[in-house]
């Protein structure tokens, strides 16, 4: 469902549509439901869904002289009136739709009518009255109690009156609840200036740390570059962050300088100059990942070769966790000691993801079979299987291709080298393939 709200006279237009709505689909809705009925809009405020921020839509808005204003990162309340309207319509539908919840599109026109005929708290008038200069005719002017021709007509009349009364009560109730809930969470507004430093809330950020629960609640501070709209600010983020740099004020906290000298953080150290290039000092290597890249073409076969490369997650000395960066091994030529220390620290860590010892005979002969990993492919689960330990042969199989392992797949779990011994581990530094198979 898509709900359009006119920010001037507060009318709503609820539309039944799929979550896969495209930019072209939204353009048609804008033409048929807004332009054809109310004229050309001046501004369109939306969330940051791909259908609303696509290049196609940006060009269309530019051609029609419409200002597109997407909500700021992690703050859908930028489009707050639509959020409230969504909740009101959902409240209405919850009351009247059938048990199977299949007839909700049929109730949308009546939901819109009830909302648009109700006095809005901001204007003191109904959206219908502001738009047309009068209130709609809701019920017959005549109060005649002449008998109707059919019982069905009488029942329909009674049903509509009941729906109208219940809807009015329900919408008034939800409006009060929403206001009370908003007032509880609302905090005093802080007016920031360009150049101010602020902490950024990490609730919606995915930092490279194992446990979100133990992660920092706020990070940096960051410098404010400009104010965007009434309550959003653009921050100077690290170049490695590939996110929208505008955040609502609710995610920002004023930076307060430490009271005592020993609480102050030292400024980031300057980079070293090696071969006329800046090189930042590594504090520690936190993690690694392997992936395949296309190599040169084999002159004999004419096919491109595949190389496996390693990336390391690097923490830089003197910088916060927000500056941690995945870096190619080829870019860490002067960090061989740090890389060696990283692998030394991982000696006794988990390297085998699962083991199935179905090929071990009573006399101890035979070789084990490893299930190294699993993944989704073409809508089904695949398992990566390794046979033996002297040399590595791994292949991806769907479960129906390895029926003899069906019971043993249930034992798919993590084990360590210490538990099973060195002879049961796969090739050192093993990481599952990301593509192919």
TrEMBL record:
SMART domains: CHROMO
Keyword RNA-binding: yes
A cellular component term, taken from the record's GO annotations: nucleus
Sorted UniProt keywords: RNA-binding
Protein name, as recorded: Integrase catalytic domain-containing protein
Domain spans labelled Chromo: 280-354
GO biological process, one term: chromatin remodeling
GO molecular-function term, one example from the UniProt record: RNA binding
């Amino acid at each position: 469902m898509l709900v359009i709200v006119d920010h001037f006279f507060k009318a709503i237009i609820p539309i039944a549509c799929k979550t896969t709505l495209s930019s072209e689909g939204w353009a048609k809705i804008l033409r048929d439901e807004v332009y054809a009925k109310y004229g050309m809009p001046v501004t369109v405020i939306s969330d940051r869904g791909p259908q609303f921020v696509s290049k196609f839509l940006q060009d269309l808005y530019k051609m029609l002289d419409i200002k597109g204003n997407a909500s700021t990162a992690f703050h859908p309340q930028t489009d707050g009136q639509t959020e409230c309207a969504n909740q009101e319509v959902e409240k209405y539908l919850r009351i009247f739709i059938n048990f199977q919840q299949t007839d909700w599109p049929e109730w949308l026109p009546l939901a819109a009518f009830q909302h648009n005929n109700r006095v809005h708290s901001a204007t003191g008038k109904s959206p219908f009255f502001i738009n047309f200069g009068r209130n709609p005719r809701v019920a017959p002017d005549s109060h005649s109690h002449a008998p109707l021709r059919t019982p069905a007509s009488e029942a329909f009349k009674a049903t509509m009156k009941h729906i109208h009364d219940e809807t009015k009560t329900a919408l008034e109730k939800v409006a009060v609840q929403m206001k009370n809930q908003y007032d509880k969470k609302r905090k005093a507004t802080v007016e920031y200036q360009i150049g101010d430093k602020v902490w950024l809330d990490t609730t919606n950020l995915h930092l490279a740390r194992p446990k979100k629960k133990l992660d920092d609640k706020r990070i940096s501070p960051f410098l404010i570059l400009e104010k965007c709209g009434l309550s959003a600010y653009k921050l100077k983020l690290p170049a490695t962050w590939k996110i929208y740099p505008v955040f609502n004020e609710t995610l920002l906290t004023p930076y307060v300088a430490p009271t005592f000298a020993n609480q102050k953080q030292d400024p980031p150290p300057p980079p070293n100059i090696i071969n006329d290039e800046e090189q930042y000092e590594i504090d520690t290597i936190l993690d690694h990942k392997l992936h395949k890249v296309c190599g040169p073409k084999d002159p004999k076969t004419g096919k491109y070769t595949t190389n496996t490369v390693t990336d390391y997650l690097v923490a830089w000395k003197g910088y916060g966790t927000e500056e941690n960066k995945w870096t190619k091994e080829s870019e860490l030529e002067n960090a061989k000691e740090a890389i060696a220390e990283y692998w030394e620290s991982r000696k006794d860590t988990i390297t085998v993801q699962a083991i199935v010892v179905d090929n071990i005979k009573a006399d101890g002969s035979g070789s084990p079979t490893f299930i190294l990993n699993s993944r989704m492919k073409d809508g089904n689960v695949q398992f990566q299987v390794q046979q033996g330990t002297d040399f590595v042969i791994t292949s991806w199989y769907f479960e129906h291709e390895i029926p003899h392992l069906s019971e043993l797949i249930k034992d798919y779990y993590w084990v360590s080298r210490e538990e099973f011994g060195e002879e049961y581990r796969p090739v050192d530094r093993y990481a599952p393939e990301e593509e192919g198979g």
